[in-house]
């Protein structure tokens, strides 16, 4: 007998209680990931619909099509101490970050999406394929304004593993090439 059977509550019941919809697990398509099952609810938060649309377009692989989802002043924060860390400001910086992730062959399998007010939280398993070596749980918090993503904050389940992987995978240019020459 599983712990679900003993408690009388299934994973689907828990997800329904969180307001998760079937489309809400569209995070599974993030970077070409696989599809995951999700619970159905009778209504879907409009910001979950937006993030589902975003992930569907992202899965197509044409990053320029993502522009319509981003506010011009978008801020996308990648925590850590590695070459990709920091806050990307504006559409061009965010798209450059996505191009770098694509070079590392990132994949994701959605766990759930939930929304409240202006925020959508996405949890997924994310892993690398070029080179292999990173396989952790991630959470993203999206803030939505006027049907556009204005902020996204990544939360790796294991920051030390993420830092080590990104240092191994993305080398900095030589010091003279990194200095601002004003």
Automatic annotation (TrEMBL):
<feature type="domain" description="PI-PLC Y-box">
    <location>
        <begin position="43"/>
        <end position="134"/>
    </location>
</feature>
<dbReference type="GO" id="GO:0006629">
    <property type="term" value="P:lipid metabolic process"/>
</dbReference>
<protein>
    <recommendedName>
        <fullName>PI-PLC Y-box domain-containing protein</fullName>
    </recommendedName>
</protein>
<dbReference type="InterPro" id="IPR037401">
    <property type="entry name" value="SnoaL-like"/>
</dbReference>
<dbReference type="GO" id="GO:0004435">
    <property type="term" value="F:phosphatidylinositol-4,5-bisphosphate phospholipase C activity"/>
</dbReference>
<dbReference type="InterPro" id="IPR006311">
    <property type="entry name" value="TAT_signal"/>
</dbReference>
<dbReference type="Pfam" id="PF12680">
    <property type="entry name" value="SnoaL_2"/>
</dbReference>
<dbReference type="InterPro" id="IPR001711">
    <property type="entry name" value="PLipase_C_Pinositol-sp_Y"/>
</dbReference>
<dbReference type="GO" id="GO:0035556">
    <property type="term" value="P:intracellular signal transduction"/>
</dbReference>
<dbReference type="InterPro" id="IPR032710">
    <property type="entry name" value="NTF2-like_dom_sf"/>
</dbReference>
